[in-house]
Amino acid sequence: RSSDLSPEDAEKKRSLGKAYRNFLNRDGPRALGSKEIPQGAENCLEGMTFVITGVMESIERDEAKSLVERYGGKVTGNVSKKTSYLVMGRDGGESKREKAESLVTRIDRKS
Question: What is the number of alpha carbons within 13 Å of residue 81 lying toward its C-beta?
Fold first, then answer.
């Protein structure tokens, strides 16, 4: 119940609710297919771990994930000390960016 929450917790709950509604209503890629998909050497991303957040402008997230995996990389959902790159699209998670910065993870902005 809302009445049992502290003012700070109630504000956090409202903020999370708003962020989730924005997530559900966000647009997809605005320029889908407008960029050529790069070709790399076999397993050129081996040993690297990526986190993809937000909306990429020219590729769907599932396609980006498949691309990383095709070249031997790993895609996870959360930033950790093992993360090599955080790929940030439009409306990307700020908490992921903050954690990546605190861990000195390379951030590649794609919006």
Answer: 0
- Encode pLDDT of 9-21 as tens digits: 888 888 777 776 7
Q: Are 47 and 83 in contact (CB under 8 A)?
A: no
**Tens of pLDDT, residues 27-58:** 666 656 657 777 888 999 999 999 999 888 88
Strand partners, 90: 55
Cβ-contact 81, 51 below 8 angstroms: no
SS3 for the chain is CHHHCCHHHHHHHHHHHHHHHHHHHCCCCCCCCCCCCCCCCCCCCCCCEEEEECECCCCCHHHHHHHHHHCCCEEECCCCCCCCEEEECECCCHHHHHHHHHCCCEEEECC
pTM, two decimals, is 0.69
Residue 88: CB atoms within 10 Å: 22
Q: What is the pLDDT of residue 76?
A: 96
